[in-house]
Amino acid sequence: MDVLTLSQLQFAATGMFHWIFVPLTLGLSILTAWMETKYVTTGDEMWLRMTKFWGKLFLINFALGVVTGITMEFQFGMNWSEYSRYVGDIFGAPLAIEATFAFFLESVFIGVWIFGWNKISKKAHLTAIWLASVATNISALIILLANAWMQKPVGYVLRNNRAEMENFLTVLTNPYGWIKFTHTLLSGYALAAFLIMGVSAWHLLRNNENDFFKRSFRLAAVWAFVASLGVALTGDFHAVEIAKTQPTKFAAMESQWETKRGVGMNLLILPNASQECNSVEALCVPNGLSMLAFHDPNAEIKGLKDFPKELRPMVTPTFLSFRLMVGLGSFMILASLVAILLSRRQNLERQRWFLTLMVFAIPAPYLAEQFGWLVAELGRQPWIVYGVLKTADAVSKSVSATQVALSLLGFTVLYGLLGAIDIFLLIKYAKKGPDKNLSTIINVQGRA
């Protein structure tokens, strides 16, 4: 394989691995802060135990997320130096802000929260976790605004054979980025809630700390349902934005080959990219695709045949990733709704069939997240900055295929090891259950 393909594989591998940790960090940070808020406002020691237990899983995940995220930024200089030279004036600004403001803020207050037990007042300790949580979400916002500029470039001019910043405020207010951020944030909340439900279900199946895990399950069920519905709603807004700004991506997502008005949505499709058609089209919802794209039943949908082959994304992977993402999202809405209904019963621990399902459902939001990013990134190809810079023109010219292949192998081994450590630690402490003796923390903090 050439340098371009290997560099794409390397960035995809490191990016997708890093994203295993990001959404759980986003969701668990807020949920942990919420649990500690309940403890501080009610004095109920159960909420403190929940804060400590779920907070421990949050910290394990946060540490691995930091480690895997830092290495990604170095690739812009090593593998993608032409990209950095061409758009660094714009793309570098959000990265600098994220590192010097958001990452610094979250790191400082995470430290205060970890080591502040027994040393600062309850309210000060609560403030620390909220500041860390907000900073974590701000960090995601800034990175997603940078990515949104690659999807929908705004606020720039082409000058001196490179893209230069013209209006930073326009970059920060890019609607594509804010929709993407909201969609991503809610998906992180849903993922964290499903993890809590899955771990709680595992313990309830063993009649371990039933009161603790029933409360955790009930809280997570509501969060999961609200967040999953929010993901679906923002996903609809995002689809409209994609149809307007990236018609090739939208056409690939839906395997739409011909340009038509009032296009129906086929629920069953089998793409045939080599023949530029669909081998199977069935269960059509009249005008459904036009409604999805523009909220107008008679809207025109641009087909893939309207674009040169070299400017089309890979249809089948983009299409399948989109369908799998939507399918998993629909499952999450239904499962979390059932979870709310069953959690209101006194005999939740007896619903063994559903608890077993929720244990096995833990990977569902992870997979949905990964498929969503495949849609976003595969669907943008062959552009690295849509309509401005092609991916083939962004790769470094000074590195060899051997160098990239060796670094890809190194990253794969290293990240595989880190992933194994993360899974081992999460399973170990999730199975261990909550601490029973919190007397020192309660006594010291109770005097504040």
TrEMBL record:
Keywords carried by this UniProt record: Cell inner membrane, Cell membrane, Electron transport, Heme, Iron, Membrane, Metal-binding, Transmembrane, Transmembrane helix, Transport
InterPro entries xref list: Cyt-d_ubiquinol_oxidase_su_1 (IPR002585)
TM region(s), chain numbering: 16-36, 57-78, 90-116, 128-150, 186-205, 217-235, 320-342, 354-376, 404-427
Entry keyword Transmembrane helix: yes
Species this protein is from: Oryzomonas sagensis
Intracellular or extracellular location(s): Cell inner membrane
Name of this chain's protein: Cytochrome ubiquinol oxidase subunit I
Cleaved signal peptide residues: none
UniProt similarity note: Belongs to the cytochrome ubiquinol oxidase subunit 1 family.
UniProt keyword Transferase, yes or no: no
Main location: membrane
Organism placement in taxonomy: Bacteria, Pseudomonadati, Thermodesulfobacteriota, Desulfuromonadia, Geobacterales
Bilayer disposition of the protein: Multi-pass membrane protein
